[in-house]
Amino acid sequence: MSERKFFVGGNFKMNGNKSSLADIVANLNKIDCPNTDVVVAPPSIYLQYLSASITNQVKVASQNCYKVAKGAYTGEISPDMLKDMGIEWVILGHSERRHVFNESNELIGQKVKHAVESGIKIIPCVGEKLDEREAGVTENIVFEQMEMIKNNVSDWSGVVIAYEPVWAIGTGKTATPDQAQEVHDKIRKWLAKNVSDEVAATTRIIYGGSVNASNCKELAKCKDIDGFLVGGASLKPEFNDIVKANA
Ligand code: PEP
Question: Which residue spans adopt a coiled-coil conformation according to this UniProt entry (predicted)?
């Protein structure tokens, strides 16, 4: 039996309003899956709205946070603020942060460092773009991103790595189980070599990229896939099926 508890995250991105989120919460509250960690990330303005009505089984995450605790950083929120409001998780370095908002590997590293030191659990994301995969440099890109994460993580117990090939996010083009497993295996071996065997064996590596109720079971069978980060399908009732993908 794996030492790693299955983990399913839902990233709502910039979607939802009070009415649609109430429907989503009603659906999430039907989840009965004690063997899976379930964490959903609404837009920050709705973090409290969700936290107030969601059951204990489902945790709430922020989609982002900044690299310092407070100050003149208009529009930003800090890990301390999230913790103050009872939020335990944050997604960092999502591909949309990297490629739409031009967040550098370095900035993501700084955010990772500050979040971990602040005691919030993190879901840092890594993944290659299509041209990078086609150029055969997937491994170099992913390892470079992993290096920046590793250099800034002092305690791995609250880290879940999300491998999200950019070409698979929101495109309907899921990585095949073999493609995903291959990269997950490489990330795990990289962790063993560059951090420790224990961190490699215990850190959850989840897959993201057009996961849905139809493809999740095959992906979940892969030895090194410990769950999913789900975008579009996390807004739909089928999210509950994805949560049970390994059952
Ligand atoms: C994501 O936003 O992290 C994601 C994987 O999106 P989607 O499932 O829609 O591809």
Answer: none
State which H helix or E strand residue 40 sits in: strand 36-41
pLDDT tens per residue, range 50-103 = 999 999 789 999 999 999 999 999 999 999 999 999 999 999 999 999 999 999
- Asked whether residue 1 is assigned to any structural domain, the reply reads no
What is the ipTM metric for this complex?
Answer: 0.98
Residue 142 maps to a domain: yes
Rg from Cα positions in the chain: 17
- 3-state secondary structure (DSSP) of residue 175: coil
The CATH number assigned to the domain holding 16 equals 3.20.20.70
Q: Confirm whether pTM is higher than 0.90.
A: yes
Which of 91, 164, 173, 228 should be mutated for ligand 1, with most atoms under 8 A from CB? 164
- Our answer to whether residue 164 is catalytic in this structure is yes
Instruction: State which H helix or E strand residue 179 sits in.
Output: helix 177-194
Q: Which residues pair with 161 in a beta bridge?
A: 205
List the end-to-end C-alpha distance of the chain, in Å, as a whole number: 13
What residue ranges line ligand 1, CB within 6 angstroms? Answer: 11, 13, 164, 169-170, 208-211, 229-233
Four-residue CA torsion sign, 158, 214, 208, 2: positive
Split into its structural domains, the chain has a count of 1
Q: For residue 237, give its domain range.
A: 6-243
In a domain, 37, yes or no: yes
Buried/exposed 156-181: b ≥16 CB within 10 Å, e otherwise: beebbbbbbbbbbbeeeebbebebbb
User: Among residues 112, 136, 130, which one has the least CA distance to residue 122?
Assistant: 112
Protein residue closest via CA to atom 1 of ligand 1 = 231
